[in-house]
Design goal:
alpha/beta, eight-stranded mixed beta sheet, two-stranded antiparallel sheet, 8 helices, 38% helix, 24% strand
């Protein structure tokens, strides 16, 4: 009797496991991607721009570039007040997100290369580049924007970009790109590579930094020093953005 009961219990358990297996649903990665972009207006000084972006984060942490973050607002506000800084210059931006800084600067820069490592984010960058290039407000003297794939620390991708743009860039820009400790060493390694690529070491890295932890505050200074770079706060730029403290840093090779 006990043997029969054990057999029934085992059979019941097997049937239950089979039912649970049948209930497992394999979801395509697109299920986790929110691409419900909204055309949004932004004003920086006297300049107004439109672009597509999300107003809330995607479920995928790696897709933070679909939003316009506080650091981008800080950087664009600074650049809109200092147009002469980038006038006629060549620029590359790291972690460009939806491309808001590139679109703002395209009217007065000689060349602007937007970069990101995520293919989904690159899609929205190109969508906004296309929107901008079709705009009636596009300045006839502005140069085209270019989007390139770049994962920080990937020397092959860095060299591929530099082959397309011999001589390097006058400026490197970054906004709100310091939020994961593991990403800081490859970020500063990439910046160092790009700084050294410019003839005469005349390139500068402008970082719009938003403080989210004391550990990160000290880490960016330490990491810059490790890569033979000097991080200097731009006077008068420390302010509150999105309830957090932000500041503009200028970085050059030591």
């Amino acid at each position: 009797m006990e043997e029969k009961r054990d057999q029934k219990l085992q059979h019941h358990q097997e049937e239950k496991e089979e039912e649970e297996e049948e209930e497992i649903v394999c979801l395509d990665e697109s299920f986790f991607i929110n691409d419900d972009y909204q055309l949004t207006n932004f004003t920086f000084g006297s300049q107004q721009i439109q672009l597509f972006c999300l107003h809330s984060a995607s479920t995928d942490f790696d897709l933070t570039g679909q939003l316009v973050w506080p650091g981008a607002m800080l950087l664009n506000d600074y650049l809109s007040k200092n147009v002469e800084l980038l006038q006629g210059r060549s620029v590359i931006e790291l972690g460009s997100g939806v491309g808001i800084t590139g679109i703002l600067c395209s009217g007065f820069c000689h060349k602007f290369v937007l970069t990101d490592h995520n293919d989904e984010v690159l899609k929205i960058i190109n969508k906004n580049i296309k929107l901008h290039s079709c705009s009636e407000d596009t300045s006839p003297t502005s140069h085209g924007l270019v989007a390139e794939k770049l994962e920080w620390g990937n020397k092959d991708q860095i060299n591929e970009i530099l082959q397309k743009h011999p001589g390097g860039f006058d400026f490197i820009l970054g906004a709100d790109i310091c939020f994961q400790q593991s990403s800081i060493p490859p970020l500063f390694g990439t910046v160092n590579h790009l700084l050294r690529a410019r003839e005469g070491r005349k390139c500068k890295f402008i970082l719009a930094y938003v403080s989210r932890s004391k550990t990160m505050d000290s880490m960016i200074i330490t990491e810059a020093s490790k890569h033979q770079m000097h991080l200097k706060e731009v006077l008068g730029t420390r302010t509150i953005v999105g309830n957090l403290e932000g500041v503009i840093y200028e970085t050059t090779l030591e």
